[in-house]
Structure formats: C-alpha cells, structure tokens
Amino acid sequence: MYAIPCYTQAIQHLNEYPDVKSYSSAADDIQRALLATIRQDRGNSGPGAGPPPGPSDGPSAPGPKSPAPTSPSPDSSFLGSWSPSSAQSIPLPLLVLGVLALLLLAAAGATLVARRLQARRVPPAPATAADKRG
Predict the structure, then answer these.
(1) Of residues 58, 53, 54, 36, the one with CA closest to residue 45
(2) CB neighbours of 49 closer than 8 A, spacing ≥ 6?
(3) In this predicted model, what pLDDT tens digit does every residue of 67-112 receive, in sequence order?
(4) CA 25 to chain centre
(5) Separation of first and last alpha carbons in the chain
(6) Between the CA of residue 97 and those of 40, 83, 107, 125, what are the distances in Å?
(7) Fewer CB in a 10 Å sphere around the end CB: N or C, the chain?
(8) Is the sign of the CA dihedral 37, 42, 43, 48 positive or negative?
(9) If phi over 0 gives left and psi between -120 and 50 gives alpha, with beta otherwise, what is residue 43?
C-alpha cells in the first residue's frame, strides 16, 4: 500500500497523457487501489472487504505493490546529459544513424551526378595529319 497522495499524484500524471485513457485501464486500477487504501485506513476492512470486483481481478489483480525498481539517473549513464530526458525525445543513436544515412545518400547522389557529367563531355576530335604538321 502506498500513501493516499501517491495514488492521486499517479492518477493526475496519467491524465496528462490522453492515450493512456484510450489504451489502458491504469487510471481505473489506481483508483480502485486508492479506494481500497482509504477503506483500510478507515478500519472498514473485514474478512470480506477488498477492492470492488473489476475486469482485472484474478491472478494478476492489483494489490499491495512494492516500489518499482529505479533506473539509474541520466547523469550517471554512459552518455550523461546526451541521454533522452523523456520518452518523447529522440534517442542519440537514432540521430547518429539518421545523419549517417543522409551522408550515404548524399555520397550516392554526388557519384551519380559525376557520372552523368562525365558521360556528357564531348570526346576530343581525333588528330588529323594536317594538325600534326602544324
């Protein structure tokens, strides 16, 4: 069980992302856990009390959870401040690959242009006997 403000903060954070409501029942699950915590804090929990039944009841039903393992902070990672700051930022390796792909395309285009220019050049006229005497 978490403190009541933790549940409300989690719900507020999830409401910032409209896709979460469309594709997930996380807000409902957190709301159910919040109600169960409030019920337990009031002392109303008895042998039959618990969160109201819902579609997520069963072996994977939400219950008291341990805090999620924390990942190392971006400052302690290999790239330091170059690592993405949020899930919406573009990762550095993807940027490097994109730039490399553009450079390769530019090199291929330059090669194609050089070949076409070389093919358009008029070959010099063969030397004649009059030119050799001259």
Answers:
(1) 36
(2) 39
(3) 554 555 544 555 555 555 666 778 888 999 999 999 999 999 999 9
(4) 20
(5) 104
(6) 53, 15, 15, 48
(7) C
(8) negative
(9) left
Task: Give the Cα separation of 114 and 108 in Å (integer).
Answer: 10
- With tokens 């790239």, the residue in question is 79
Please tell me which residue, 51 or 94, carries the higher pLDDT value.
94
Q: In the chain, what are the helix, strand and coil shares in percent, each to the nearest 5?
A: 55, 0, 45
Q: One-letter amino acid identity for 65?
A: K
From the list 40, 29, 41, 39, the residue with the least C-alpha distance to 65 is 29
Only one residue has tokens 């390769």, namely 104
More confident residue, 68 or 58: 68
Angle between helices 26-41 and 4-15 (to 10 degrees): 160
